[in-house]
Amino acid sequence: MRPRAAAALVGVVFGVTLCWTGLTSPVVLRDGLLFHSAYLYLFFASAVTTAFLGLRLLRARRARALLTGQPVRWAAVRPARPHVVGALLFGVGWAVADACPGPIATQLGQGVWWSLATIVGLTVGLRLAGRRQAARAGGAGRPRRAPSSISSPSGVAPAAPVGTRTDSAA
Questions:
Q1: Given CA atoms 154, 146, 132, 86 in this order, what sign does their dihedral have?
Q2: Using one digit for the tens of pLDDT, what is the confidence trace for 36-47?
Q3: Taking phi first (over 0 means left), then psi (-120 to 50 degrees means alpha), and beta for anything else, what does residue 73 get?
Q4: Around Cβ 123, how many Cβ atoms within 10 Å?
Q5: Distance (Å, rounded) from C-alpha 84 to C-alpha 165?
Q6: pLDDT, tens digit, for every residue of 143-155?
Q7: In 3-state terms, what secondary structure has residue 71?
Q8: Structure pTM?
Q9: Is 64 helix (H, G, I), strand (E, B) or coil?
């Protein structure tokens, strides 16, 4: 299966799962954020636990990724200031928008039209972060590629802190 087709399939399954579990509902999100219901946190905890155990099992068995054939591995990165600031901004944005970025597309598909405002805010935020990262890296264009033991088809490493120089001349 080609990577884009596989990504589309995973996205559809993820979207259906979000809808089926109710995690696209502003009421479920709001109740979780206001600590009126533990459902959101229990769902997150089960997802994190499953991923934690599953990835470690794959790594211990020296498994390879299905699409790329590369070994399942990663490098640990110590949390830095950009991680904390990003997490705070993400949380505040999530609370204000009453939506997580994950289900925005499914909300739009369900007819939740105000999700368009969330999509616009997400897009503007990502573009501003990319420009800021490029400016700090000394370039005027796209953010620089980050070195990592994790390879991806796009060449972008997910664990690189925003705003850090990642080129070899740094």
A1: positive
A2: 999 988 998 999
A3: beta
A4: 10
A5: 18
A6: 555 444 444 444 4
A7: strand
A8: 0.59
A9: strand
